[in-house]
Amino acid sequence: MAGTLSFGLSLRDTSLVILFFNLVCCIQTAYIGMLGPKTGMRQIIQARYSFGLYSVAIITVLNLIAITGFTLIAVILGGQTLSAVSDGKMTIKVGIVLTGLIGLFVSFCGYRALHLFNNYSWFITFICIVVAVGCGGKHLDNPVPVEPASSSTILTFGCLIVGFMLPFNGIVSDFAVYYVPNAPAKRIFWYVYAGIAIPTILLQTLGAAIGAAVPKVASWNSGYENYSAGGVLEAMLRPAGGFGKFLAVLIAFSLIGNVGASMYSISLNFQATFTYAARVPRGVYSIITTVIMIAVGIKIADSFFDSLENFLGIVSYWPGVFGMIVTIEHLYFRKGDASTYDAAIWRDGRKLPVGIAAISTGILAFGIIIPCMNTLWFVGPIGKITGDIGFEVGIVVACIMYIPLRKLEISISGHL
To answer: On the CB side of 289, how many CA atoms lie within 13 Å of its CA?
Structure first.
């Protein structure tokens, strides 16, 4: 909804930006996902073979911020929808608490339960969305007229799409690792690529169409003002009466699968930060994260879309640089050979890479990214003219700098 509702782009322009940026971004994520089953390592452990045992802690912290932020978005959306369905009898705060606690419970059930839940819940959610479109579809072909889009606006909105997609780089192997090691790499790539790209493009495009119609449909606009995105969804389903409310509740609870899966990765990331952190049970990290999310969610729920845009603007830069470093490490220095990821040294700081090359590349990339940013909270001198091109510039700098710095690191340390 942000493209049409917040950025003032036309539905056509928004849809094209969604299509292009998602199709491009998912390539990197799907490629990294192939390494999960081949190495047998989850994402942050795998990253140690580029960033080293100690420097990877910086990536872990950034990853935790990104995952927790996306989980927070899901919790807020669930709370808003439940509150809208109850006509405000259940406050958004209570809805956020309820969604967060149920998601925490689901995360305690383990990966197999999460996998089973998501295997079936997607179809139920799909039916609910189809019904919602059927109830409100007559309004979708009459969007509000807008001015022609500028290249600056398109690039800045594109950066938000990047911020939504590329953080998967930091968690994709947490789940792809469950594929069998001898599965064809191309098949894994296309499974991951299609599994992320297709539903994201379809749902974001639908959201853009809904956002374009919100100002002209009184009930949708009222729902948006009172309950943000959850209120719009409830308003779309209102013509279906009680059945529509039931479907809205199902959609709200479908987000629990996202929350539970994110909690799974969050706890793994905490344990991978430092060696001693693995001694703490994963459930403790999930509980702490849930408490923080509920508290923050209650605070920012009233300014949901501003908070969403701020968050996506923050997290859209580092995953691209991280993904490029990991990809170059695998293709150039390890010659695409998964056997070079020696599992026996996964926590041996002396035998793992030092990590200076990877971290230095990241720092240099961000030194160029900052003046190219164009976000709600900061606009750099270059980004002010061009729109947000931080993501593109960061990837180019990583490509240029990592190879010579890593070669220097190898020559000094004497090993990969």
So the answer is: 30
